[in-house]
Amino acid sequence: MKRVQLAAVEAGFQHNNLVLLADKDHLDALDSQLAPGELAFVRQATSQEVSSFSFPRAEGVVFVRILKAEKDDYIALEDARLAGNELLGELRRYKIETLGIHNFCSENRALAFAEGLALGSYQFLKYFTKPAEKNLQEIRLSPDSASSSAIAEVNALLDAVFLTRDLVNEPQSHLNSIQLAEAIESVAREFGFQAEIMGKEKIEALKMGGLLAVNRASQIPPRFCVLEWKPEAAKNEKPVVLVGKGVVYDTGGLSLKPSEAMDYMKCDMAGAATVVGALAVAARTNLPVHIVGLIPVTDNRIGQNAFAPGDVITMGSGKTVEVMNTDAEGRIILADALHYAKKYEPALALDIATLTGSAVRALGTQAICYMGNAPKTVKNTLEESGFATYERLVELPLWKEFGDELKSNIADLKNLGSSNAGMITAGKFLENFVDYPWLHLDIAGPAYLRVANGYRTKEGTGVGVRLLYNFLKKQYT
Ligand code: BES
Ligand code: ZN
Ligand code: ZN
User: Fold this and answer.
1) Residues 191, 334: one domain?
2) pTM score above 0.90
3) Does one domain contain both 436 and 335?
4) What is the CATH number of the domain that holds 53?
5) Residue 434: what pLDDT?
């Protein structure tokens, strides 16, 4: 099913169905849009502090949405996204397929409203045998509400977020390691970036002992995907490397997860899906930033051949790791990818992963847990992008003492700390494999939701795509 499109229309375009977006403090701005009878109705409604109502016109329905003024820009925009999403129920009830949006707010919030509406309209219906009902097809904005370039940018972001959500929602029965790598190749072709897929022999030649250990009990070989978007006009001399955890299914391995923690572990490649989404939107918008994406792909299984607690493995970097818990597999495959990233001498490497349950317990599903050694200026930009896209981040420390828990009696490192601050010890583990400016984003909380939260639809949310695009654009162009 085709997703809803944002479309630019000329000023004065006659809409059938229309949203009038207004500020509580500037209601008179609406007057010019209303017929005398409508004006009386609107006055009546607003005098009773009703902030959301609709009325019919001969050719369609007019929805009036009155938003509160907010002193923080980013909250004003988020209110608009959520208001957009909230309209969906009514649009479905009226079976509305096209909709115009007119901004009468003092700050323009029409595009954010459209973005929230579009993001909320996502559905993953592939495996229902019943045909889908017709959905909203087009959201129309005239130049006074959004420029055509801003509309094109949101369309590109929507494509990328929906792509990322689709990849996360696809179960491992239909998206194993080989299939994920193939899907990445076809996305690369469609959006216009490069993708090189390495098979098991290449991975062995690179001595990626971490990825190979995690893959050992699997029926399906691992993959290592190298993505690249290298525009001629790139503003950065050294590339930005994005690393995504691509565990297509995490049983926990021999440190087996209980069933209720396993039933949604198809989401354990959400970091990988976000990296694919970020490259897709960069290519689609011709972003002048040189980006490399690195994605180690495997599942984490049990079996005769499985790596086991107590094993010592040798990583791609040559460091040895005593495996204390096979369910802490994400850090093991990421470490090999982060080591591989050294050859690019990156301006920044940023890894993104559904890495720890402790990140979920600490911050829930609203915030991304992040840490790293990158300069303060880069962290500030990232946090600003977090607010701008409302994919907010909270920084945690990588103090040296947290690393003490990873000391092993018989190898360079253990892959497990104590039961405290598990998201930090995971970060400390990764720190052993980087020698460049680096950030680690743990998205275990916000990447996957059992129930929708506003326009963050249930299951894969695509978190990180809008964030990374906003960040790359702000920091490097
Ligand atoms: N894939 C999980 C983390 C996860 C938890 C992702 C919840 C999405 C939602 C990861 O591989 C894992 O199992 N981590 C363990 C680490 C522990 C054994 C140190 C965890 O957090 O429980
Ligand atoms: Zn695990
Ligand atoms: Zn995992």
Assistant:
1) yes
2) yes
3) yes
4) 3.40.220.10
5) 99
| Helical residues (DSSP H) of 390-464, grouped into ranges | 422-431
Q: 137 and 171, same structural domain?
A: no
Does residue 250 have its Cβ closer than 6 Å to ligand 1?
Answer: yes
* Domain housing 87: 5-146
Give 372-376 contacts, CB < 8 A, sequence gap 24+: 372/398, 372/427, 372/437, 372/438, 372/439, 372/440, 373/398, 373/431, 373/434, 373/437, 373/438, 374/348, 374/437, 374/438, 374/439, 375/437
pLDDT tens, 243-263?
Answer: 999 999 999 999 999 999 999
pLDDT tens-digit series, residues 92-109? 999 999 999 999 998 899
- Ligand 1: does its nearest atom lie under 6 Å from the Cβ of 446? no
Asked if residue 151 is part of any domain, the answer here is no
Q: What is the pLDDT of residues 300-310, one digit of tens each?
A: 999 999 999 99
User: Could you tell me if the CB of 23 is within 6 A of ligand 1?
Assistant: no
Catalytic amino acids? 257, 331
- Ligand 3 centroid to Cα of residue 333, in Å, is 10
Tell me which of 113, 146, 179 is where a domain ends: 146
pLDDT tens per residue, range 202-257 = 999 999 999 999 999 999 999 999 999 999 999 999 999 999 999 999 999 999 99
